[in-house]
Amino acid sequence: MEGAYRAVVEAPGAARPKSIAAELEVSPRTVTSALNLLSDAGLVRWDRRGAVVIEQVDPATAAERARAAAEERERIEESRIEMMRGYAETSRCRRAFLLGYFGEETGERCGNCDTCESGHADAADAGSDASGAFLPNTPVSHEEFGAGTVMDVDGDRITVFFEHEGYKVLSREAVEERGLLEPR
Ligand SMILES: [Zn+2]
Q1: Which end of the chain is more exposed for a tag (fewer CB within 10 A), N or C?
Q2: What residues have their beta carbon closer than 5 A to ion ligand 1?
Q3: How is the chain split into domains, by residue range?
């Protein structure tokens, strides 16, 4: 990571993953994934010719920031999987659940999915619990999780997608009592 970053910094113009790989004696694939993380961390960017430095820091700091970017990516990915697990186990209308996942409001149950047809879909329609500051698509910020967007409100559960943390399901009661979410 540090070597790849140093190579980009030292390259005259854009650095090609192939030449960095040759220089460092690692595979081009390793270099490309290192550069992608450095790009996620906002330190380099890709242009047609290769990688270009956009922020110069010392290589150890670059590696640290790339690591943080990798961890963030992993957290977000895990939260997606967690949401999909919720989809598999939900007793709500599956269409309403999915629309909530994408931050869309829906007024009613679809009547066609398996939970609707088995009569297990919750009586409360998705979106009908949304009110005030917590409508889907409201930009919010959380003291610990930072900036996010309300995706869904269902009973006491508020689902928020946080830019750096991924999906979080918060208790509406806790959110309201402790003022955890501020509109942005
Ligand atoms: Zn349904």
Answers
A1: C
A2: 93, 95, 109-110, 113, 116
A3: 2-65, 90-183
